[in-house]
Amino acid sequence: MNDERLTVAPTADDADDPRQEPERPERPEGPERGPRRKRRGPGPVTLLLLPALVTVTGVAAFLVLGGLPDPWPDDSDAKASTAADIDPSYVPWLRKAASACTVLEPSVLAAQIDQLSGWSDDSDELSGQKGIAAFTDSEWRTWGKDDDGNGHASPRDPADAIMALGRRDCSLAEKVTGLRTEGRVNGDLVELTLAAYAVGPDAVTGEGRVPAAAKTYLAEVQALVPRYEALDREDSADGAGGPAGALLTAPVSPLTITSPFGSREHPLTGVTKLHTGVDFAAPQGAQVVAARRGRVVFAALTSAYGNRIVIDHGTIQGKRVETTYSHLSSLGASVGQTVEAGAPIGRVGSTGLSTGPHLHFEVILDGYYTDPRPWVVANGV
Which of 95, 218, 255, 284 could lock onto 245 through a cystine, CB 3.0 to 4.6 A? Predict the structure, then answer.
């Protein structure tokens, strides 16, 4: 709570108001005066009402001037200037979507979604907009893809929606960059891009700058950007220790994906089902490291995954994150052990159902498998 106090100063009207100083009755001129009246003490009514009146007046003045200091000061402004409390599963997708073009920052993309939907995926029946990025069906046919590899593209799938909005914004950014290079428009590229989103690139071209019709939308998005600026920093708010745009340290190096996350036919069983992680190519015996600080909760030989390690990284903004490392030739960590990001935990192998040496790596968010690529790789290999 701000320590400043409200100061009430008399206005000109107050100074001229005769009620501020009650008129005194004129005394008779001359030396002769009437007999002096005996001064009476306060009556019983006055004795009862005066203390109450003084108390009420004092309390009212005290409240006007600020009242008691708040033991729980409102820090909403401070929170707004750091990072908003958004679903942590959105963070890698915001960074991946923004990495598609140099104009777009994750904070701008997040602020745009906040302005469009307030992060709610409720559909707007009147406009036909769906999902957190408020796509119409026709817009989705142009920009939507199955980016998280779960078998279907939907504007109600947050990962798909974030990536689609990033593609749309980057396309607009490319257009306005070309227009500015040609000298047909002037202004900041981010502002021009957001204006093109709001009213279309033709309107921006016609005005040669941000059109008046786009200024309200632009101001609303810009006001929200500070809430998400932590997304633009190389390190995450939780100190993940990964490269810029990533939340996890690479478990092997270099990162070469041979089989991505998503539906596939298993090369040995022939069964088509969700491939719950990504396969990184690596030679037999290559070092495998922990992708983030955490506690080892599983380290043993399994029939399908071979030697497998599971690390619990705790909760990130209310979501529990775990990573898994499978088909290892040897285990270099034990259950209950706390490991740091980058700490050796095993060696690449081909144990279990495997066609050759590689690392099968998974990210589990609140018990559900999610695509590890945007979590680990800044530009989404």
Answer: 95
The long-range contacts involving 330-333, CB below 8 angstroms and separated by at least 24 positions, are 331/299, 331/300, 331/307, 332/288, 333/290, 333/296, 333/299, 333/309
DSSP H or E stretch at residue 165: helix 158-181
Q: Nearest to residue 96, comparing CAs of 288, 278, 244?
A: 244
pLDDT value of residue 99: 84
pLDDT tens column, 231-260 = 886 544 343 444 444 588 999 998 899 988
DSSP string, 84-121: ----GGGHHHHHHHHTTSSS--HHHHHHHHHHHHTT--
pLDDT digits (tens, 9 = 90+) for 74-122: 333 333 333 466 887 788 889 889 888 888 899 999 999 999 999 987 7
Q: What are phi and psi of 102, to 5 degrees?
A: -75, -20
Q: What is the largest CA-CA distance in the chain?
A: 126
* Contact between residue 219 and residue 194 where contact means Cβ atoms under 8 Å apart: no
The answer to whether 362 and 370 are in contact (CB under 8 A) is no
Candidates 137, 189, 203; CA nearest to 164 is 137
Judge whether 193 and 221 are in contact, CB under 8 Å.
Answer: no
CA distance 273 to 294: 29
